[in-house]
Design goal:
Elements lengths: L2 H4 L4 H16 L1 E2 L9 H6 L11 E2 L2 E2 L5 H18 L3 E3 L5 H12 L5 E5 L15 H5 L1 E5 L10 H11 L3 E4 L10 H10 L3 E5 L4 H5 L12 E5 L10 E5 L1 H15 L5 H14 L2 H23 L3 E2 L8 E5 L7 H10 L2 E2 L1 E3 L13 E5 L1 H5 L4 H16 L4 H15 L11
Parallel strand pairs: 1-13, 5-6, 5-7, 7-8, 8-9
Antiparallel strand pairs: 2-3, 4-10, 9-10, 11-12, 12-15, 14-15
The protein binds pyridoxal-5'-phosphate (PLP).
Pyridoxal-5'-phosphate (PLP) binds next to α5.
Length: 417
């Protein structure tokens, strides 16, 4: 039954769904942590598996009727292991944050010390921020980037690790645009006998395609989201060696979650199947080409990129030199039909609600089919909007141009409601 018919009785809800589809279709989605799943993944994510309880793991469930769940979860695991070359995977985390929580609990006790990347240098809330469970349950220490290069300060990392003796070191973040030297992290972890966890939430798709160094051979635990560059449904996964498999599984269930979202596990399996196809590598390559092209345009237009550029899908604009705040930039782009987010830059003097940075990502636009020449237009829209950020009518004109432009890249053309 088409959704339209199913929702005939609920026009209020239907109107909201319709508006959101429209928003996604007619705006340029440049939030670096977002993407568009395939239509297959979208549909599988809304399947009858949403009805099923399957606490436990394949062949070891607490409820009856799990034979298809077993087959599904096993398929999903097999695909994840094949894609990332890991010994063990848990595909049940509801999100990246719960993957991280379970990963921590599998090797740490409350009160142990963790060493993560500073949030304002590109880290993530769950890597020790005081407002997150991670900062409340563990003693936290941080490393950051060098002020001159804005690249991770590996010497500072070692010094911090030796001084604070963490039980776990975390690599990875949510606004760091560069490659990470996992070998160096491994050496530091070995030096202080710490576990090494890599949170590849942002760059997992690039890792899968072999375009970013794989942390899998070096880290004790790798966590990820499935919905960023990996282009799956909203969710998480934990990859680890066999020796930690039992601990990780127990910390997801019964540790912190109840029944897995089997419809989402199904959608993860669909997305992982797509990621195993050769076209996925072309897709990830195009993401990188698109972000390089965008970086060139923005730099040529006089904007400074943190670290001078990017190795990934993510660009971080430093607006301090052009007298703009991140907040003003985000608002102006939004009015111009471009969705992105303000972000702190390293050594930012603005507070978290204002910031001096703007984070941009190319993964979602690349999914829509944009290639380099299209990024020329996108860059033009962005530069125009930032230069005329106070001119409402000009921003509105850009929005109309953006709306027309997006129609050349249909999104879910078969979805009608
Ligand atoms: C996005 C992200 C997460 C959290 O993912 P959620 O699914 O939003 O909980 C964790 N770590 C990093 C590095 C991220 O970028």
């Amino acid at each position: 039954m088409p959704l339209k018919v199913a929702l005939d009785q609920d026009p209020q809800l239907m109107a909201i769904l319709r508006k959101e589809l429209k928003r996604q279709r007619f705006k340029l989605e440049m939030i670096a942590s977002e993407n568009f799943v395939s239509e297959a993944t979208l549909r599988v994510g809304a399947s009858v598996f949403t009805n099923k309880y399957s606490e436990g793991y394949p062949e070891n469930r607490y409820y009856g009727g799990c034979e298809n769940c077993d087959e599904l979860e096993t398929l999903c695991q097999t695909r994840a292991r094949k894609l990332f070359g890991c010994e063990h995977v848990n595909v049940q985390p509801h999100c990246g944050s719960s993957a991280n929580m379970a990963a921590f609990f599998s090797v740490l006790r409350v009160g142990d010390t963790i060493l993560g990347m500073r949030l304002d240098h590109g880290g993530h809330l769950t890597h020790g921020a005081p407002v997150s469970f991670s900062g409340r349950l563990f003693k936290t220490e941080f490393y950051g980037v060098r002020e001159d290069t804005e690249i991770i300060d590996y010497e500072g990392l070692l010094a911090k690790a030796e001084a604070t003796r963490p039980k776990l070191i975390i690599a990875g973040g949510s606004s760091y645009p560069r490659t990470i030297d996992f070998q160096k992290f491994r050496e530091v972890a070995d030096r202080v006998k710490a576990y090494l966890m890599v949170d590849m939430a942002h760059f997992a798709g690039l890792v899968a395609a072999g375009l970013f160094p794989s942390p899998v051979p070096l880290a004790d635990i790798v966590t990820t989201t499935t919905h960023k560059t990996l282009r799956g449904p909203r969710g998480g996964m934990i990859l680890c060696r066999k020796t930690l498999a039992k601990a990780v599984d127990e910390q997801i269930f019964p540790g912190i979650q109840g029944g897995p979202l089997m419809h989402i596990v199904a959608a993860k399996a669909a997305a992982l199947g797509e990621a195993l196809e050769p076209e996925f590598i072309d897709y990830q390559r195009q993401i990188l080409k698109n972000s390089q092209r965008l970086a060139t345009h923005l730099t040529d237009a006089g904007f400074r990129l943190v670290s001078g550029g990017t190795d990934t899908h993510l660009l971080l604009l430093d607006l301090r030199g052009v007298n703009l705040t991140g907040q003003a930039a985000e608002t102006a782009l939004d009015k111009a039909g471009i969705t992105a987010n303000k972000n702190v830059v390293p050594f930012d003097r603005q507070n978290y609600c204002v910031t001096s940075g703007l984070r941009l990502g190319t993964a979602a636009l690349t999914t829509r089919g944009l290639v380099e020449k299209d990024m020329d237009r996108v860059a033009e829209f962005i530069v125009d909007a930032l230069r005329h950020h106070q001119d409402e009518s000009f921003l509105n004109k850009i929005r109309l141009r953006v709306e027309e432009f997006t129609q050349g890249f249909p999104l879910y053309p078969n979805l009608e409601f």
